[in-house]
Amino acid sequence: MSSIKISIVIPFYNVEAYISQCLDSVYNQDIPEDEYEVICVNDASPDNSREIVIEYQKKHSNLILIEHEVNRKLGAARNTGRAIAKGKYIWNVDSDDMIKPNILEKLINYCENFDLDILMFNFDHCYENKLKLNNSYPFIDSEVLNGIEFINQYCLNNFSEISPVWSQLYLKKFLDQNGIFSPLINIGEDVPYTLKALLLAKRVKSVLDNCYVYRLNPLSLGGQFSKKVSAIDLYEKCIICSKEVYNLLQFVPKKEKEIYESYLLISKNIISLIFQYKNNLNKDEKIKFRKLIRKKIFNNLYVFKLLNKRNILNYIELILLK
Predict the structure, then answer these.
(1) Containing domain of residue 313, as a range?
(2) Strand 130-133 and strand 98-99: pairing?
(3) Is 34 helix (H, G, I), strand (E, B) or coil?
(4) CA Rg, the chain, in Å?
């Protein structure tokens, strides 16, 4: 039986400015290094991130480096790390973020003492090295509930705040038994992952503790999305992510009408982002985007169920324009 209590999975791509701070944080902890592992997945990063990770690997025997020969995107990289993880619990950490010092023992104890499938916790925003508590939706110290109860009590109006996978610890056995994996995309992959996990979990709890530091990075994919966007990123964020959430409706119990309507609304909101962000495509990317939605139009007929009449016309116009 493995003695590893928790696996911290860190995919990385083009983060040489931040990866050291991230790794420093995961090694500034209060449990022995032989009780946890750090799995870094190099998603074919073009910068010096790999070399930095190798230097840390020389100092820490619990750091595992996995190499992707080609860029396979964030969701796939997370799945790669998870596939070899030996820990009882999984923590997905972004490579430009940090975790709080001396927090692992407390988090593991929460999970063990309450026999949890999912533990949710609060986080700080970090901008220009200044920390600020995320006040949009701070978690409370909740009772233990099943996922449906937790959604009804705490999430119906706050899905955007609870969706990041790095603000949660997961029991690996729970994820594996329920087939919960990250979609193979670069942006928006957290939402369907978290929403499916919550639907299927038997024991969920949130705590007051601030355990994570989320960096507001203007150079990240999400940070640049509102200014400059590629065709494939827009397609993944709006079409694929929306479809992943739409497909979760099959897991919602029939009596849970509010949850059904909330998940349906999330799917509608995601698909409608096309019309908010399409003007951030340059001319060449607009052509690529049209080709994408034309090519996959029959695979994405669900889109017409989600768009209002005005946006259906806009979507058709996008497809037909030369």
Answers:
(1) 226-320
(2) unpaired
(3) helix
(4) 20
Per the CB < 8 A criterion, the answer to whether 115 and 204 are in contact is no
Locate 113 and state its tokens. Answer: 């003492």
CATH code assigned at 18: 3.90.550.10
Walk along the chain (322 residues) in steps of 10 and give the mean pLDDT of each run: 91 96 98 98 97 98 98 97 98 97 98 98 84 77 98 90 93 98 94 97 97 80 64 94 97 97 96 92 93 92 93 90 69
Residue reference for tokens 């911290």: 8
- Residue 239 CA to residue 234 CA, distance in Å, equals 8
User: What are the backbone angles phi and psi of residue 38, rounded to the nearest 5°?
Assistant: -120, 115
Distance CA 168, CA 214 (A): 13
Q: How do strand 204-215 and strand 130-133 relate by DSSP bridges?
A: unpaired
SS3 of residue 150 by DSSP: helix
Give the pair of three-digit tokens for residue 158.
Answer: 């706050």
Tokens of 175: 């994820």
203 and 297 together in one domain? no
Same domain, 243 and 111: no
The predicted model scores a pTM of 0.94
Residue 237: partners with Cβ closer than 8 Å, 6 or more residues away: 185, 187, 188, 225, 270, 273, 277
The answer to whether 249 and 241 are in contact (CB under 8 A) is: no
Domain annotation covers residue 1: no
